[in-house]
Amino acid sequence: MFNNLSDKLDKALHVLKGHGSITEVNVAETLKEVRRALLDADVNFKIAKQFTNTVKEKALGQDVLTTLQPGQLMVKIVKDELTQLMGGDAAGINLSGTPSVILMSGLQGSGKTTFSGKLANYLKNKKTKKPLLVACDVYRPAAIDQLHVVGEQIGVEVFSDKGNNDPVAISQAAIAHAKANGHNVVIIDTAGRLAVDEAMMTEISNIHKAIQPQETLFVVDSMTGQDAVNTAKAFNDVLNFDGVILTKLDGDTRGGAAISIKSVVNKPIKFIGTGEKMEAIDVFYPSRMADRILG
Ligand code: GDP
């Protein structure tokens, strides 16, 4: 890995300064460090390149050449741009429905079921919310059991209908159940597959059309790097989802997928998963992620 990027840029520009004035060429050199940091963080190559071009323009426009601490100014520009690129302020979720229906989508193993539980727990702890979890993976009985285990753990009711293989019907029955029993949030956990395929897309699209959720969230494993971008694009093409959940950020990924995904689908990252426990959920803050990516 690399040292703190801020120190590196400071050092690079200071040395250059000692040898006379800093030129555009020197700025370009330091931008190479920035690009390297982004690539190390698994940001898509094209996006890293576009990004450094934008930073270059800003840097030259903001008198980086004459400032006393050019490295620090460069880091500030880089950080501000990264934060902007990842969505600026943290984005909330729409809980305006009665009940508010939240549809979870994503590949198998991305962390959908775990995150459904985390979100239910997070909302339950807000006191005004009474969530209902819904098991809609009709192919894997083990997935239904897993959601029941999660529900028991956090004290949230789980709606399921083992044997029924129609996820649209299950979702609709769950929403009716929620209305009848005072649940104001319904979180629907759906079936994922190991890779994007048509059957999965048709199924989730049918559920989406039938229930018209307030929020459709796409869950993605941050460790999957470049694949995460392609998967995000495939799901967004079909669902036009509202937000992204980036899981497994407790691993050693620097989280470059956050930038790539945001750049490609232009949807906010709303929450992150930082562990297997039900409490390991955090609102996504672009500026914190920028710090992590810059190291
Ligand atoms: P699903 O198939 O999309 O429903 O995925 P699961 O919720 O079953 O998660 C797959 C695996 O990833 C499980 O072993 C989870 O415990 C684990 N997992 C989910 N979220 C996180 C996370 O944020 N961090 C870590 N370390 N593991 C996670």
Automatic annotation (TrEMBL):
Domain SRP54-type proteins GTP-binding per the UniProt entry, residue ranges: 268-281
Keywords: Cytoplasm, GTP-binding, Hydrolase, Nucleotide-binding, Ribonucleoprotein, RNA-binding, Signal recognition particle
GO molecular function: 7S RNA binding; GTP binding; GTPase activity
EC number(s) stated in the UniProt entry for this protein: 3.6.5.4
Entry's Gene Ontology cellular component terms: signal recognition particle
Binding site for GTP: 106-113, 189-193, 247-250
Keyword Protein biosynthesis: no
Principal EC category: hydrolase
UniProt superkingdom: Bacteria
GO BP: SRP-dependent cotranslational protein targeting to membrane
Keyword Transmembrane: no
Main location, first listed in the record: cytoplasm
Subcellular location: Cytoplasm
Reactions catalysed according to its record: GTP + H2O = GDP + phosphate + H(+)
Subunit structure: Part of the signal recognition particle protein translocation system, which is composed of SRP and FtsY.
Entry similarity comment: Belongs to the GTP-binding SRP family. SRP54 subfamily.
Domain notes: Composed of three domains: the N-terminal N domain, which is responsible for interactions with the ribosome, the central G domain, which binds GTP, and the C-terminal M domain, which binds the RNA and the signal sequence of the RNC.
Function of the molecule: Involved in targeting and insertion of nascent membrane proteins into the cytoplasmic membrane. Binds to the hydrophobic signal sequence of the ribosome-nascent chain (RNC) as it emerges from the ribosomes. The SRP-RNC complex is then targeted to the cytoplasmic membrane where it interacts with the SRP receptor FtsY.
Name of the protein in its database record: Signal recognition particle protein
Name of encoding gene: ffh
